[in-house]
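Possible regression after last week's pipeline update?

I re-ran a chain I had predicted before the update to compare outputs. Posting the input and the new output here so someone can diff against the archived version. Not blocking, just want to make sure nothing changed silently.
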Amino acid sequence: MNPRRRAQRAVLSRDRVLAAAVELADEHGLDAVSMRRVGVSLGVEAMSLYRHVHNKDDLLDGMVDDVIARFPARDEAVGWRESLRGLVRGAHSVLLAHPWAAGLATSRPAVGPARLRFVDAVIGTLLAGGCSPQLAHDAMHAVEVHVFAFTLQELRLQVGPSAHGYPLDELLSGAGAAAYPHLAATLAVAEHDHVAEFEFVLELLIVGIERAISTSVGG
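New output (post-update):
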């Protein structure tokens, strides 16, 4: 065996394989990720990867968890509201930096350690804010929906606003404007501001959680 190839194989690890796959997806899209191409990027044969990932599904699940592991940790030095804002904003920022990850995360059945740590951090923050275990559970799901679903929508709209495969400006002109009058009138004066919209929904969540806490305590 070539000494260089032997050295590369010797230092090959699951972390290196996942990092290479993530980099490949970031640069060329998720469809570009294959065992062969990841192997090429690492200078090894694809078969060498199977010592570190079981199969393509394991690779994809590992890629998701590798990205989610980059979400920020919970800041326990601040109040629960600011801690929750930090977790949500940080997760959203990481997912935007890896545009393929949100879609893959929501389509894979496996839940890795990094995803569990994020969920645990959110629940810990909510419990610290006065949520009951049931309320923390329910609010955690709302937080995850905001992080992942909003990111998916934002990424789609960055490609270009459309509906049913047609540009919205064409769809909402003429007969389209008559068919969807409220949508047409709103979009005629409103603009998409992803940052503002993300923050708006985040604050709605926090206000809703605050109200739920006060209601449960008062009850």
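Follow-up from reviewer: compared with the archived run. The mean pLDDT is 90. Marking as no regression found.
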